[in-house]
Amino acid sequence: MPETGQKNVQTRSQARAPPNFEGDDMKEYIKSEVEKYFGSVAFQDSLREFITDSVKMACKNLVESIVVPIKDEIQALKTELIEVKRKCNDNEQYSRRSSVRIYGIPEGPKENCIKKVCDFFQKEMDLAFAEEDIDRTHRVGKKNRDGNRAMIVKFKAYDSKRSVMKVKKARLSNKTFSVYEDLTFLNRKLLYLARNEYKETPVWTID
Fold first, then answer.
1. In whole angstroms, how far apart are CA 141 and each of 27, 109, 121, 151?
2. How far apart are CA 184 and CA 95, in angstroms?
3. Among 84, 166, 77, which Cα is nearest to 125's?
4. Can you tell me whether residue 205 is helix, strand or coil?
5. What dihedral angle (degrees, nearest 10) is formed by the CA atoms of 75, 80, 81, 82?
6. What is the pTM of this model?
7. How many helices (H) and strands (E) does the chain have?
8. pLDDT digit string (tens) for 75-129?
9. Residue 126 contacts by C-beta under 8 Å, 6 or more apart in sequence?
10. What pLDDT score does 75 carry?
11. Phi and psi at residue 161, in whole multiples of 5°?
12. DSSP for 84-132?
């Protein structure tokens, strides 16, 4: 019995021993083992994981080095554009500071707009303006429900416009006419939104 056990141990030890190759046989053996490993599932999984991780890292580095700076630059340009638009709106509104819009004046063919607004101010608002006080005036926009377009009036002097705005509420309260400051498109939109938001509170503009 002891001899049999010893023989079995020796047999297993001999089976685990590496081949005793020399020269070209050793090269062929190594080549064969390498080819087997390269073709194994374990190697393919390791290679796939390595390539995946490498691509992810390369993409991350690409984003950090190219995409992120471009994104920051775009955001900076957007911020700058907003500021430019704000300044343009402010400048445009300033150019309108001597102007008003009048709604409700009947529109007729070949009308003399300057004479018509002077008559309106005299009759409806008890304000006397000479035609020389008006820089220019004309119809603008679409026709309202009454079939008349609004009239823009630009005074030569800012004080003339202020005198209109001071008395308009008292002198037009029970009439079908209305007078507003001549606002830019953006400011008209803001005024519209504010009035919808605060329906129970009077909302108006000044300068």
1. 93, 16, 21, 9
2. 10
3. 166
4. coil
5. 90
6. 0.65
7. 7, 4
8. 999 999 999 999 999 999 999 999 999 999 999 888 999 999 999 999 999 999 9
9. 167, 171
10. 93
11. -65, -40
12. HHHHHHHHHHHHTTTEEEEE-PPP-TT--HHHHHHHHHHHHH-----GG
Tokens 């504010």 -> residue: 194
Q: Which residues pair with 43 in a beta bridge?
A: none
**Pair of tokens at residue 182:** 């001549």
Using a 10 angstrom Cβ sphere, with 0-12 exposed, 13-18 middle and 19 or more buried, the burial of residue 40 is exposed
What are the structure tokens assigned to 22, written together? 């020399």
Give the Cβ contact number of residue 22 at 10 Å. Answer: 7
Entry field: residues in the chain:
207
Dihedral sign of CA atoms 197, 201, 202, 205 in order: negative
> What are 25's two structure tokens?
């046989």
Residue 16 one-letter amino acid: R
